[in-house]
Amino acid sequence: MTEKTIKIKKEPVVKKPKKKEDKNVVEVIVESEKKEAVHHAPKKEKYYEATGRRKTAISRVRLYTKIKTFTVNNKPLEEYFKIVRLQKSAIEPIEKMKIADKLGASIKVNGGGSMAQAEATKLGIARALMKFNPIFKKRLRKLGFLTRDSRAVERKKYGLKKARKAPQWKKR
Predict the structure, then answer these.
(1) How, if at all, do strands 104-110 and 70-72 pair?
(2) 90 vs 71: CA distance, rounded Å
(3) Quick one: pLDDT at residue 44?
(4) How far apart are CA 29 and CA 31, in angstroms?
(5) Is 100 a domain residue?
(6) Per-residue model confidence as pLDDT tens digits over 104-116
(7) DSSP at 98
(8) Domain carrying residue 101
(9) Which NCBIfam families has this protein been placed in (predicted)?
(10) Is 122 domain-assigned?
(11) What is the rounded CA–CA span in Å between residue 81 and residue 26?
């Protein structure tokens, strides 16, 4: 005995018009399987992202137009950079462009020391500002915020005590 598979197709349901005036109009509604509603998160705000580097510190900066706070590694800027000089250094490009009250930033930084992290953040903010408004590029370049400081610790060489310091020479 052979088994046959039968596919059942759902046929459209035809509804007749309720009003006598609309006899010519016939609504055709196809019943389809109910799909669960997909809940999408609300649209996230647009941001301008850039990366800044200094020594071994790397900073990823996202500039927001609606959020007016500065967070570094999910902490307020003042809490992360405890020294006021580092706080000012990190957000200096925004202050020089005179738009500190219009923008906020979310910053992820790792590696290096606190000074290198602040400098990397400064470069990242400057690059993000350039994406935010290309007109800022000339002013940022003139102020020196778009130049990456490439200085890093020189490696130690064999036969030397440090990168360049040689052991004391003795005659005998």
Answers:
(1) parallel
(2) 11
(3) 73
(4) 6
(5) yes
(6) 999 999 999 999 9
(7) T
(8) 47-143
(9) PRK00132.1
(10) yes
(11) 70
Identify the pLDDT of residue 58.
Answer: 97
With the CA atoms of 143, 141, 80 and 59 taken in that order, what torsion angle do they form, in degrees rounded to the nearest 10? -160
- Give the global pTM: 0.71
Q: Is residue 148 part of a domain?
A: no
Tokens 């196809």 found at: 30
Question: How many domains are contained in the chain?
Answer: 1
For 48-101, what is each residue's pLDDT tens digit?
999 999 999 999 999 999 989 999 999 999 999 999 999 999 999 999 999 989
Q: Quick check: is 98 in a domain?
A: yes
**DSSP result, 109-153:** EESS-HHHHHHHHHHHHHHHHHHH-TTHHHHHHHHT-SS-----P
Kindly calculate the radius of gyration of the chain based on its CA atoms and give it in whole angstroms: 32
Neighbours of 38 (CB within 10 A): 5
Q: What is the CATH number of the domain that holds 106?
A: 3.30.230.10
Question: b or e along 42-60 (b: 16 or more beta carbons within 10 Å of the residue's beta carbon)?
Answer: eeeeebbebebbbbebbbb
Cβ atoms of 59 and 107 closer than 8 Å: yes
Residue 94 tokens, joined: 């925004």
